[in-house]
């Protein structure tokens, strides 16, 4: 299993999360909240005794994403992804930024160090513009 | 972090289910077997969102069971070392505190809590700065960094830190905001 990342080599700060996860779609908490809500409704329609089918993992995830989502409005969620995807970020970086909504450039670099790693051309100005766009979405939500 | 990934699994089905509803049976069994489980490689399987492909079944000799390779998409939660995320504090004691981020439990030892925060016992144990401006107690939301993961057969457990820039309490449930 060559694609598997051993625990010792794994480091999200350097974007070492394994090829499999790098290639996969990464989702922000607010997006997960919508998916799980939809699934929850489906489960309830399917049977009256929905509580039996809902796993603890599902329930905890749902509570968590509802509590830790920055954007509630579906349109805002879409806009966040659209804005962030203009900046050539990896999926993982995009979602960390979308989840945590940093306010300053230093904060953004601290939570996603990989955006400043070598070979990347994201200047501070660009990061600042990105954060500004994000805060606008939040303001007009 | 939550991911939407494609996974594969070999499903064994009893011959009594063979018939017009074979696919439905297979999907229902897949959900029952997989949702809520956890593996070290893919993390916690939160929900199956779709079945991509069901391959040709293979009869197992002697039992009559048929094995189907099933390709499906699922929402998984997989914590990574170095990842920064928000978590909700569930328990505080003098050793440190436990927090939850979705299905995963994270322990933050008192060595990884800033030195200016002191443990206060009582019926609401907490960590407080000397001036009392910042407090970590049950139900606080904290931003932390995962520095280690331990994988069990059925669980992933994480060690976190809040001793770094831009980490720590986000909101304080006790404060009147």
UniProtKB/TrEMBL annotation, chain A:
Keyword Endoplasmic reticulum: no
GO molecular function: nucleotide binding
Record has Transcription as a keyword: yes
Signal peptide: none
GO cellular component, one term: nucleus
Keywords carried by this UniProt record: DNA-directed RNA polymerase, Nucleus, Transcription
InterPro entries: HRDC-like_sf, RNA_pol_Rpb4/RPC9_core, Rpb4-like, Rpb4/RPC9, Rpb4/RPC9_sf
Pfam family name, one: RNA_pol_Rpb4
Name listed for the protein in its UniProt record: DNA-directed RNA polymerase II subunit 4
Biological classification of the source: Eukaryota, Viridiplantae, Streptophyta, Embryophyta, Tracheophyta
From TrEMBL, chain B:
Keywords for this protein: DNA-directed RNA polymerase, Nucleus, Transcription
Function: DNA-dependent RNA polymerase which catalyzes the transcription of DNA into RNA using the four ribonucleoside triphosphates as substrates.
RNA polymerase Rpb7-like N-terminal domain location: 8-64
Keyword field contains Transcription: yes
Subcellular location: Nucleus
A single BP term in Gene Ontology: positive regulation of nuclear-transcribed mRNA poly(A) tail shortening
Protein name as annotated: DNA-directed RNA polymerase subunit
GO molecular function per UniProt: single-stranded DNA binding; single-stranded RNA binding; translation initiation factor binding
Any GO CC annotation of this UniProt entry: RNA polymerase II, core complex
Organism: Canna indica (Indian-shot)
InterPro entries: NA-bd_OB-fold (IPR012340), RNA_pol_Rpb7-like_N_sf (IPR036898), Rpb7-like (IPR045113), Rpb7-like_N (IPR005576), S1_domain (IPR003029)
Domain of life: Eukaryota
Family recorded in the similarity comment: Belongs to the eukaryotic RPB7/RPC8 RNA polymerase subunit family.
Domain S1 motif: 79-156
């Amino acid at each position: 299993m060559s694609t598997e990342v051993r625990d010792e080599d794994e480091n999200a700060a350097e974007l070492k999360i394994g090829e499999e996860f790098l290639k996969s779609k990464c989702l922000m908490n607010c997006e997960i909240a919508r998916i799980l809500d939809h699934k929850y409704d489906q489960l309830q329609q399917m049977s009256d005794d929905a509580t039996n089918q809902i796993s603890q993992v599902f329930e905890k995830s749902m509570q968590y994403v509802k509590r830790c989502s920055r954007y509630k409005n579906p349109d805002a969620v879409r806009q966040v992804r659209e804005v962030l995807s203009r900046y050539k970020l990896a999926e993982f970086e995009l979602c960390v930024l979308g989840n945590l909504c940093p306010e300053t450039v230093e904060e953004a670099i601290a939570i996603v160090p990989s955006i400043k790693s070598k070979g990347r051309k994201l200047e501070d100005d660009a990061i600042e513009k990105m954060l500004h766009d994000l805060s606008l979405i939040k303001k007009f939500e | 972090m939550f991911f939407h990934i494609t996974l594969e699994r070999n499903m064994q089905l009893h011959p009594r289910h063979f018939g017009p509803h074979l696919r439905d049976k297979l999907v229902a069994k897949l959900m029952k077997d997989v949702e809520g489980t956890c593996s070290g490689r893919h993390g916690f399987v939160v929900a199956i969102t779709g079945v991509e492909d069901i391959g040709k079944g293979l009869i197992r000799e002697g039992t009559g069971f048929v094995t189907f390779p099933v390709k499906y998409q699922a929402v998984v939660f997989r914590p990574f070392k170095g990842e920064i995320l928000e978590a909700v504090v569930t328990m505080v004691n003098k050793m440190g505190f436990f927090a939850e981020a979705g299905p995963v439990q994270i322990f933050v030892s008192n060595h990884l809590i800033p030195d200016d925060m002191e443990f206060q016992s009582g019926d609401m144990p907490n960590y407080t700065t000397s001036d009392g401006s910042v407090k970590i107690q049950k139900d606080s939301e904290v931003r932390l960094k995962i520095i280690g993961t331990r994988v069990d057969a059925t669980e992933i457990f994480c060690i976190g830190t809040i001793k770094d820039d831009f980490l720590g309490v986000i909101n304080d449930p006790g404060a009147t905001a």
